[in-house]
Design brief:
The structure is a homodimer of 475-residue chains. Chain A is α+β, with helices and mostly antiparallel strands and 475 residues long. The first copy, chain A, is built from 17 helices and 19 strands. In chain A, strands 12, 13, 14, 15, 16, 17, 18 and 19 form an 8-stranded antiparallel beta sheet that branches. The relative contact order of chain A is 0.11.
């Protein structure tokens, strides 16, 4: 292996091949569930260097774990503990190669931090609408390889829908220059979407051409109390009809989830939650003016109150108030952590079936696991719930997790699949859900995926063991 | 082969296996460029029957050409002339399996005629926004397998972006039940987008879950004279900014293209074209009201006139006027045919580079091919031009085509690629552009495509020779 390390040092420069010291930032996953050990952390500075690193590793039969900001939630970007894998960090590749305003695109390197791209777009007079909790640390390459979701999917889609073209280093170390500012291109198979969401198991995304959108003239946030999830779904339908594409956010939050925010962050004012089982946060982005946005919002909420979908509502008066409302929503995860250990699920269900799913699955869990507390919230507009399970208030949470996690997962995932849903809506598969995928996804789909993996990465060196397991071709 | 025919008759019923009589509807391509000869035309009535047909053909080593409405423009859905291929027609599978209003989806079988789906959606109170010239005959399965574009891509995307899930019969005759009403699902590789746009070469799409959108409260159409393509691009930017997602159509038409409509269809009133080199058709879909839509449109056009992007404009007063304006746009292709033979190109270029592309390529063609007449029009909002070349007015058009078509294609495609464009924006590859693709697409991309084709269709029996050529595995 020393030969390979020497080659890598020659390729990217000795200072960019890390083998000593504290490599936790690269070897420990974001949620601290898994600590690996890398043969080396390699930080190439260009696409040509990435290609050379891949070629060297392929020749040596050494596997590669690509890594961006290492903020993934499914243990997909840290090495195993064998000490035989290379972590290939894209962090040094953070150039914005081009902004094309007339084409509404920007071409960026994989290591660009998401928040920096939002800022870059804003300075150029545009909106880059991808937005999620880790935006200060995550990279666009990671967003692409996991097809990240976030809070603006309802209007702008997942990362996949924001991407027009890719530059990829294949498992053979070839460079596919598929950067493109084209909105229509029917020249063969959709390689772009195959690499997006493949979590580094088919190749390494080194750059991308992403869509920009015009900045809205105004963005308003409202908070509504709804008497049930059925009413929340009805409100969503009304909002689609009356705000059209102006509807850029529709988040639902259960009473218990909000009570945790109120309990652990008493300085935050959580509106309306005491008297209603569910609250909804709505966002309306308007291309005309703030006055127009407010009129439309008030019209919608009046209609919703007339129809009984909404019992009470507030519209933020200014940006500070809007931020405060979003901050409540975004504080739920942290409030949950303050409350203690819990079991997280990132699931999606057709919107129409969510009320019945929650009703029946809540009942099931409560019946099977006495004292369980359900933290329900998520992107209802996308059918995406973070359906989390908090340990009982009076027991030992660690014991609860140890003894009950598998059972809880089985109950929840079985219910998800029975309702036509997905066991991973926006977080991906990584290592954490590989076994679940084998169990819950159709064998035909798994076989198709395995065929593709074997075709594009015959040595099984690209992030092996993630997403889909194949027999190791070895050497 | 008689054994296979017998098996197929048992599988789908003897009346649905056609071997005699006039099979032109299945064997002759839409633009009458290619007449093939099928071993048989098989019309299964269910997904199970499709799977059984594929299995029988695979066992016999007989290749399959899947076919929907047979309206494709690149000879992708008719058999070759060997008499050894099965045409598998999906026309009998035309059920709408489900409409889920709260989830904004409908699940439909591959053989549904596009226009019927538009009508079905409208009756349920929704809009199914895919719209294109062949909508009265084409099927959604064909739209999906070619990733069809059309006039609403600017706002709603290509067919790809309207699809949430697929049911597919693989090359092995297995059924992948990937129908899904989910807007987020990160459980592995994006099989859906791999089958969409693969033109039946990887498997057969038998059903799909498609997005619906709320019907707009009003839809207005405007027609503007612009002094140059640069001004058209500037107008597009203004329209994006001021109409936001309300901008659902942005078509550009050159003066010569419009003069052909005026010449061959004198009953049509073609507005404004006499005094301007380019006209633009804009469509504004509004979730509020017709008054609001009109106000926003007039505001936009006033602003555009102040800035010099637009020299004159009309907004349709009623639906009949709007239809008349769209009808002019849609009559260009037919007017071209009336004028005589011509060479068609369906290309895309980043929007920002279109003016320079047209300027330089017009000059190039005029210099190399004296008397050539350029018919320029297309979906400027998507960067998609139908950049067509009409034979000189005074010569023999058939001779022109025979002697000049290859040269013209080379000049145009070289220019397209030099401007970062695609040689097939929305029509696909089929047989017609297979050789062009090999020439113009990156070898790395072609190798990736070949690997995928070989992995998913190892016998090369699914629409062989289309999109990408592989060594025939044979039997």
């Amino acid at each position: 292996m020393q030969d390979l390390i020497d080659t890598l040092r020659q390729t990217v420069g000795a200072t960019h091949v890390l083998t000593d010291g504290d490599l936790s930032a690269y070897e420990l996953d974001w949620r601290k569930r898994s600590r690996g050990k890398a043969l080396a952390v390699v930080r190439p500075g260009s696409t040509l260097e990435v290609a050379a690193v891949v070629k060297a590793c392929a020749a040596a039969g050494v596997s590669i774990v690509p890594q961006g900001g290492n903020t993934g939630l499914v243990v997909g970007s840290t090495p195993d503990d064998s000490g035989t894998q290379i972590v290939l960090s894209l962090q040094r590749m953070h150039a914005v190669r081009q902004i094309d305003g007339a084409n509404l695109t920007m071409t960026v390197e994989a290591g660009c931090i998401l928040q920096n791209l939002q800022d870059t777009a804003e300075k150029a007079g545009f909106l880059f609408p991808l937005s999620l909790a880790a935006e200060g640390s995550c990279t666009i390459g990671g967003n692409l390889s996991t097809n990240a979701g976030g809070t603006q999917v309802l209007r702008y889609g997942n990362t996949r829908e924001l991407c027009l073209g890719l530059e990829v280093v294949t498992a053979h170390g070839e460079i596919w220059s598929g950067l493109s500012g084209l909105r229509k291109d029917n020249t063969g198979y959709d390689l772009r979407n195959l690499f997006v969401g493949s979590e580094g198991t088919l190749g390494i995304i080194t750059a991308a051409t992403m869509k920009l959108v015009p900045q809205p003239a105004a963005q308003l946030t409202a908070w509504a109390a709804v008497p049930s999830l059925d009413h929340a779904v009805a409100l969503l339908g009304l909002a689609h009809r009356h705000l059209g594409a102006g509807l850029t956010g529709f988040e639902v939050m259960g009473q218990f989830a909000l009570s945790l925010v109120a309990k652990h962050y008493p300085q935050q004012r959580v509106p309306l939650y005491l008297d209603t089982p569910w609250c909804v946060l709505l966002e309306n982005s308007d291309s005309e003016s703030e006055t127009h946005a407010r009129d439309r919002f008030e019209h919608l909420l009046e209609l919703a109150m007339e129809q009984g979908c909404v019992t009470d509502a507030v519209v933020a008066e200014n940006i500070a108030q809007a931020h405060a409302l979003w901050h409540v929503r975004e504080s739920i995860s942290m409030a949950q952590a303050e409350e203690g250990l819990n079991i997280k699920h990132d699931i999606s269900i057709p919107v129409s079936r969510i009320p019945e799913f929650v009703r029946s699955t809540d009942a099931l869990l409560t019946a099977h696991i006495p004292g369980v507390r359900l933290v329900n919230f998520g992107h209802l507009g996308d059918g995406n719930l973070h359906y989390n399970v908090q340990a009982p208030a009076d027991g030992d949470a660690a014991t609860f997790l140890r003894t009950r996690e598998d059972r809880v997962n089985t109950l929840v995932f079985d219910a998800v699949v029975a309702h036509g849903g997905s066991i991973s809506a926006e977080h991906g598969v990584g290592s954490l859900k590989v076994a679940h995928l084998e169990h819950y996804k159709s064998p035909v789909a798994m076989d198709l995926m395995r065929s593709i993996k074997e075709a594009l990465d015959p040595q099984n060196l690209m992030n092996p063991g993630r997403v889909v397991q194949v027999a190791n071709a070895g050497f």
